[in-house]
């Protein structure tokens, strides 16, 4: 039986665009009270007004996940207003597509790991004690198929998402006995503002020449809400990506060979 989400308090990081923005609208439509968190306050306020005009309830809180003190303020503000957080959707993310040696150590490598992995862990660390006290709650972590199969040009992004996957699995096994559910979402390539804002490079163009379908942001957000209603340990979307990731597990040498060829043919472009 599906869980009724009405009056649930949902905290969403990375809510100013993409999966987070679309999920906020959908959670609000289900009757949830949504707490919108991201760096761009203007975008959050605009979304909050949109949700409120549609009859929903939303609160916008600016936060930089690189600053632990801001995370604590964000969580405490939500708790002061609503007294609880039923669902935490760790969605904030950042990425760069390029050969590893071309990444800027601070702006690219450190920031990707801090936002995608450490930010997810710190937000969860701030919320979890309150869920444990109530013996209920659901933590939904946005990972990626890059957290299941690593490829050239996304080495650091994949490292962060593999970390999110490990954190999600470990945390689930740690807190499930105390009534806390933890789910991991692993979407394939999707059309979002996140992707559109990626730096244009010859490396990225070499990937774009590979023709493959992209998920819509709305579709992924719908599946996130589905997981909130019917909790699962993990969700890979689209379903056929399970075949690809399974192939990597069973026949890693073949996958290596395919990706070796890709790198050999494209690395010289830059």
Plain-language structure description:
The chain is α/β, with parallel strands linked by helices and 270 residues long. The chain contains 10 helices and 9 strands. The chain has helices spanning 18-29, 41-53, 68-82, 105-134, 155-175, 193-196, 202-208, 217-229, 241-250, 252-266, and strands at residues 9-13, 33-38, 57-62, 87-90, 137-142, 180-187, 190-191, 215-216, 234-237. It has a 7-stranded parallel beta sheet, sandwiched between helices. Helix 5 (155-175) links the parallel strand 5 (137-142) and strand 6. Helix 1 crosses helix 8 and helix 3 packs parallel to helix 4.
From the alpha-carbon coordinates, what is the Rg to the nearest angstrom?
A: 19 Å
Number of strands: 9
The poorly predicted ranges are none
Task: Provide the residue-averaged pLDDT.
Answer: 91
Globular, elongated, flat, extended or rod-shaped: what is the shape?
globular
Strand content: 15-25%
Oligomer: single chain
Major sheet size, sense and barrel closure: 7 strands, parallel
Q: What is the helical fraction, as a range of percent?
A: 40-55%
Class of secondary structure makeup: alpha/beta
Q: What is the terminal separation in angstroms?
A: 53 Å
How many DSSP helices? Answer: 10
């Amino acid at each position: 039986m599906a869980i009724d989400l009405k009056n649930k308090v949902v905290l969403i990081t990375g809510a100013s665009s993409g999966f987070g923005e679309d999920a906020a609208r959908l959670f609000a439509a289900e009757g949830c009270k949504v707490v919108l968190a991201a760096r761009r306050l203007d975008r959050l306020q605009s979304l909050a007004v949109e949700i409120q005009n549609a009859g929903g309830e939303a609160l916008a809180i600016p936060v930089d996940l690189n600053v632990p003190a801001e995370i604590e303020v964000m969580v405490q503000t939500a708790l002061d207003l609503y007294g609880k957080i039923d669902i935490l959707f760790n969605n904030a993310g950042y990425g760069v597509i390029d050969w590893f040696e071309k990444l800027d150590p601070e702006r690219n490598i450190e920031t990707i790991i801090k936002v995608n992995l450490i930010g997810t862990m710190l937000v969860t660390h701030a919320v979890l004690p309150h869920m444990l006290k109530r013996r209920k709650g659901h933590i939904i972590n946005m990972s990626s198929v890059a957290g299941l199969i690593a490829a050239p040009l996304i080495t650091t992004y994949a490292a962060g998402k593999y970390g999110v996957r490990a954190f999600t699995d470990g945390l689930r096994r740690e807190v499930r006995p105390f009534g806390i559910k933890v789910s991991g979402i692993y979407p394939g390539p999707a059309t979002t503002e996140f992707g559109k804002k990626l730096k244009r490079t010859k490396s990225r163009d070499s990937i774009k020449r590979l023709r493959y379908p992209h998920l819509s942001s709305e579709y992924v957000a719908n599946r996130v809400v589905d997981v909130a209603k019917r909790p699962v340990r993990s969700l890979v979307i689209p379903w056929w990506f399970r075949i690809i990731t399974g192939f990597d597990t069973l026949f890693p040498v073949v996958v290596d060979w395919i990706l070796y060829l890709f790198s050999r043919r494209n690395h010289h472009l830059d």
